[in-house]
Write a structure and sequence with these properties.
Largest sheet: 7 strands, mixed
Number of helices: 0
Structural class: mainly beta
Radius of gyration: 14 Å
Number of strands: 11
Length: 129
């Protein structure tokens, strides 16, 4: 099992920024699809951003966050990041990082929950107006 632990959530005002971190115990011998999802109470889970850990492909973003959020990874620190700028109240949600070594994301132009088998417990982001 891959272990994922999110951190960095909190409360900010609209227009502010947060950087989420995901400590990931990934195998050095495998490549992964890595992604951030979010889910607000009563709402569907939404794929926010994804990236292939092996490189060679540009990160993918949902239309609602494109231009505002940036996904990145630090392989030396085994950490996945989500830099969130220009935050809006509708960004309020529990944010989860996810991973899968089946790397189905490599062949997609979308971020699907079913493509990811390993999940963190989440970190709360609250954006006030």
């Amino acid at each position: 099992q891959v272990q994922l632990v999110e951190s960095g959530g909190g409360s900010v005002q609209a227009g502010g920024s947060l950087r989420l971190s995901c400590a990931a115990s990934l195998s050095a011998h495998s490549t992964y699809c890595l992604a951030w999802f979010r889910q607000a109470p009563g709402k569907e889970r939404e794929g926010v951003a994804s990236v292939y850990s092996g490189g060679g492909a540009s990160p993918f973003y949902s239309g609602s966050v494109k231009g505002r959020f940036t996904i990145s990874q630090d392989k030396a620190k085994k950490t996945l990041y989500l830099q969130m700028d220009s935050l809006k109240p509708e960004d309020t949600a529990m944010y989860y990082c996810a991973a899968d070594d089946l790397i189905t994301c490599y062949y997609r132009d979308s971020i699907l929950s079913d493509d990811y088998r390993y999940w963190g417990r989440g970190t709360q982001v609250t954006v006030s107006s």
